[in-house]
Amino acid sequence: AQTVTQSQPEMSVQEAETVTLSCTYDTSESDYYLFWYKQPPSRQMILVIRQEAYKQQNATENRFSVNFQKAAKSFSLKISDSQLGDAAMYFCACPKNNDMRFGAGTRLTVKP
Amino acid sequence: DTGVSQDPRHKITKRGQNVTFRCDPISEHNRLYWYRQTLGQGPEFLTYFQNEAQLEKSRLLSDRFSAERPKGSFSTLEIQRTEQGDSAMYLCASSLENRASGYTFGSGTRLTVV
User: Which of A55, A103, B30, B75 has the fewest beta carbons under 10 Å from its own?
Assistant: First the structure.
């Protein structure tokens, strides 16, 4: 079965603080990429960060980084120095065949 | 190229009517995907095209749903005899064949069936 699980429906973080969003996945792929997408309210989904499963080094994009634990099939997103503009739904995605499957999302609130 | 375009942005229709949505992907992307997203949920896969070939369809795509990509460029998603349960955001995304590229999403078409 192909599943992507985001166990935190909602998270809250104080501006300038750090928050970690969790994701576990299951895939039968051998070589794959994992993705985190951000969906601001009433706006389109945008790619935040990607991780190649064969790379041991965790991906980093500015204030966004991942903690990829391949054996545990865990792929969490860390947002450092949170900003008000980070408030959005965040979706973890993993591949299935030639397309991707998404988790149910985590709604992140950033408190000023 | 301004990204993935979807039209219309919003559609309100009466139950039983047919609706058609259009997606224009990024021109150099040969892969195109349709997803459905309901409030508070993640996108659910509906179907996928590589060029003009529809290569995969979800069981969510009932007989009332049909998608085409006739020339390997834009795509249409048609829903016949709409039901209230069809109310959702319909998202289109496109990508290169390279798995690393991820998807570029359009802004979606929000369908409301009344």
Answer: A55
Give the per-residue pLDDT at B1.
Answer: 53
**Angstrom distance (rounded) from CA A91 to CA A36:** 6
Among chain B residues, CA nearest to A88: B40
pLDDT at A31 over 90: no
Q: Which of B42, B93, B99 lies nearest to residue A95, judging by beta carbons?
A: B99
Q: Are B95 and B103 in contact (CB under 8 A)?
A: yes
Secondary-structure breakdown of chain A: helix, strand, coil percentages, each rounded to the nearest 5: 5, 55, 45
Contact A44 B105 (CB under 8 A): yes
Q: Across-strand partners of B87?
A: none
Of B23, B19, B47, B20, nearest to B33 (Cα)?
B47
Residues from A in contact with B at Cβ < 8 Å = 4, 6, 31-33, 35, 37, 43-47, 50, 52, 91, 95-105, 107
Cα–Cα dist B34/A79, whole Å: 29
